[in-house]
Amino acid sequence: MIKPHFSRLAGALTLGLAAIGCSLTMPVLAQNDVMTPIAIPAQPSAIELGTGPLPGATAKESWHSQYGSVFARNVTVATLTPFFPATGKASGAAVIVAPGGGFRTLSMNNEGWDVAKALADKGVAAFVLKYRLKQTPADMADFEKSMAEMFSGAARANRPLAQQDPAVEFAPQIADARAAFALIRKRAKEWQIDADRIGMVGFSAGAMLTISTTLYGKDAKPAFIGDIYGPLTKVEVPADAPPLFIGLAADDPFFANAGYGLIDSWREAKRPVEFHLFEQGGHGFGMYPKTTTSTGWFDSFVRWLDMHGYLKPKK
Fold first, then answer.
1. pLDDT tens digits for 240-284?
2. Contact present, 310 and 125 (Cβ < 8 Å)
3. Which of 302, 240, 229, 168 is nearest to 26 (CA)?
4. Is the residue at 228 inside a domain?
5. What is the domain extent for residue 121?
6. Within 13 Å and on the Cβ side, how many CA atoms surround 192?
7. What are phi and psi for residue 14, nearest 5 degrees?
8. Do residues 29 and 290 lie in contact, with contact meaning Cβ atoms separated by under 8 Å?
9. Which residues form a coiled coil (predicted)?
10. Helix, coil or strand: residue 4
11. How far is the C-alpha of 128 from the C-alpha of 180, rounded, in Å?
12. Is 269 among the domain residues?
């Protein structure tokens, strides 16, 4: 029997994805920007995670540009791309960065590489997780049409709640996250990382993956986690749950009006949680420069990491 919190979380994720599709990572300020197909960028530092090709996949990985950023879709093989601090600057801590995109695309610049570079500049090794995605039409026009259908009122009204728990529904993505943690721990000495100081931060769908990995990822066990504009659905929190940082805009059209159950869950479990509710920022602000205070989420996150001792070498 599925536990109640499983179905609540899966239901929230399903409704959120049905309503927003790939807009999970799109800034409100540029709604008319078009999707332009691009060649797959060279990724010489990317390391395959060994979780195998996505079962049943027929469409091949492809990329497009939009909103001054680049997006990957139809990812069938998971990779991890490292960004290391400058020599002598490393704190020994590390973060796995999970971009968002409705499990249909990945915002590789705004919620991946740019975040990782900024973390490395603060002395924290960062690893961008390009996790496997749900398949979408290979043709760009058909892809855009499928996204438009997801936006339609009929699609939102007729899409049923997920009946599976996230551990099943997002099994490939959780497996990719677990493999990322395992790889970093295996090479921790080589990369000058403390194996017990590896955290994870995710954006929108990536935030969903971060929470799911924490709750159902078995041996993943992140030391700390960041949830940036993900759903705040109430969950059952394990006794050893890691410190949690949450950033959300009050005008987020998808997740700002469904309560703050995730925060309540962490507090009820007497686990550390920090919550920043920005007055404005919409959804998908990530590392985009905006005039709203949501742009300050990264500085707040870094101060939070410092408060927990992750910006300095372990004594």
1. 999 999 999 999 999 999 999 999 999 999 999 999 999 999 999
2. no
3. 229
4. yes
5. 4-307
6. 15
7. -65, -45
8. yes
9. none
10. helix
11. 9
12. yes
What is the pLDDT tens value at each position of the chain, 315 positions in all?
234 344 455 555 544 443 444 344 444 444 447 899 999 999 999 999 999 999 999 999 999 999 889 999 999 999 999 999 999 999 999 999 999 999 999 999 999 999 999 999 999 999 999 999 999 999 999 998 887 776 565 444 444 434 468 889 999 999 999 999 999 999 999 999 999 999 999 999 999 999 999 999 999 999 999 999 999 999 999 999 999 999 999 999 999 999 999 999 999 999 999 999 999 999 999 999 999 999 999 999 999 999 999 999 998
Residue type for position 249: A
46 DSSP 8-state letter = -
Global pTM reads: 0.91
Picking from 119, 100, 82, 73, the residue whose alpha carbon sits closest to that of residue 310 is 119
Give the per-residue SS3 of 126-180: EEEEECCCCCCCCCHHHHHHHHHHHHCHHHHHHCCCCCCCHHHHCHHHHHHHHHH
Flag whether 315 is in a domain.
no
Q: Specify the 3-state DSSP secondary structure of 182.
A: helix
Instruction: Answer yes or no: is 215 within a domain.
Output: yes
Residue 103's alpha-carbon distances to 160, 182, 213, in angstroms, are 17, 22, 15
Q: How many domains does the chain have?
A: 1
- The answer to whether 251 touches 208, Cβ cutoff 8 Å, is no
Q: How far is CA 272 from the centre of its chain?
A: 20
Q: Give the residue carrying structure tokens 């039409």.
A: 137
In one-letter notation, the amino acid at residue 74 is N
Residue with tokens 């529904």: 169
